[in-house]
Design goal:
Structural class: alpha+beta
Number of helices: 2
Largest sheet: 5 strands, antiparallel
Helix content: 10-25%
Number of domains: 1
Shape: globular
Length: about 160
């Protein structure tokens, strides 16, 4: 049985290692140019589901930052990010607390910044329990329309890697 030379074995192992690294990086999902995770919003994720091809994306994340009123090293959970939708005219957008498949209360009311875009208001801080919910995939973005005032598209937020 023929055997590979040592140099060919190392090249093959190196190529396999690179392939594994590339595959691992791709498995994390889409991210923005700043590394923020991108969440896809669809009507199928609404409760109850909304049909159609309407969609959207969000890069909203929550991270620990220095508390605005602290002179020490206390940190507070702050939300940042945007939402963009396509195929309908949005009337409102919120971050809600709830598991996939369940509706929940509003945590953050988003500000409309354009015909189809929203943003987390500047310097928006959330409670520690909302941060825990975010880390457990229990926060979602819901975008409303005149046709579907309870929600047109929705997507569960993904914690930052």
């Amino acid at each position: 049985m023929p055997t590979l030379r040592a140099s060919k074995k190392w090249r093959l192992l190196g190529a396999l290692g690179i392939a594994v690294l590339i595959a691992g990086g791709c498995a994390r999902g889409a991210t923005t140019s700043t590394g923020m995770p991108v969440t896809r919003l669809t009507g199928a994720q609404e409760v109850p589901a909304v049909g159609g091809n309407l969609s959207g994306t969000t890069d909203i994340v929550i991270y620990q930052t220095k508390c605005p009123s602290s002179t020490g090293s206390l940190s507070c959970p702050q939300a940042i990010g945007t939402v963009t939708v396509d195929g309908f005219t949005p009337t409102a957008a919120h971050v809600h607390r709830g598991k996939a498949g369940a509706n929940g209360p509003v945590v953050i009311t988003l500000t409309k910044t354009g015909p189809n875009t929203f943003a987390v208001p500047d310097r928006t801080f959330v409670s520690d329990s909302d941060l825990l919910a975010y880390n457990d995939n229990e926060l979602y973005v819901n975008v409303h329309s005149e046709k579907n005032p309870n929600g047109e598209v929705r997507g569960q937020l993904r914690p930052t890697p």
